[in-house]
Write a structure and sequence with these properties.
Shape: globular
Distance between the termini: 28 Å
Strand order of the largest sheet: 1-2
Strand content: 5-15%
Length: 105
């Protein structure tokens, strides 16, 4: 990709679905109860305890992975203190593989 002299390359355009997920997460955090929003310890990207916290349960399915990526983006921007959890319940033969994939994300 070429750019005009002195200009920086354009960032890729965010697809509407990803933007909608990020905005939904922001709205949910804004509506969260103030007494629980700042109760977890701060993650590496956010040091301000007044920033809302979230724990994301991730199954490995498309919906929870989309939520995980949206929350991770907001965490990196300092808009939320986030943790993700997944459980290998062992009820299906692929659960260990799914848990490993989620943990690697």
């Amino acid at each position: 990709m070429s750019t005009a002299e002195g200009s920086s390359p354009r960032r890729p355009t965010l697809d509407p679905a990803s933007a909608a997920i990020r905005n939904a997460v922001r709205a949910a955090l804004a509506a969260a109860d103030e007494t629980t929003a700042g109760s977890s310890d701060a993650g590496p990207a956010v040091k301000d305890p007044s920033v809302p916290g979230a724990i994301v349960g991730v199954s490995g399915g498309a919906d929870s992975m989309a939520l995980l990526h949206a929350v991770a983006f907001l965490h990196r921007r300092g808009e939320v203190r986030a943790r993700a959890v997944t459980v290998d319940h062992g009820l299906q033969t692929v659960t260990a593989e799914v848990a490993d994939r989620v943990a690697a994300t």
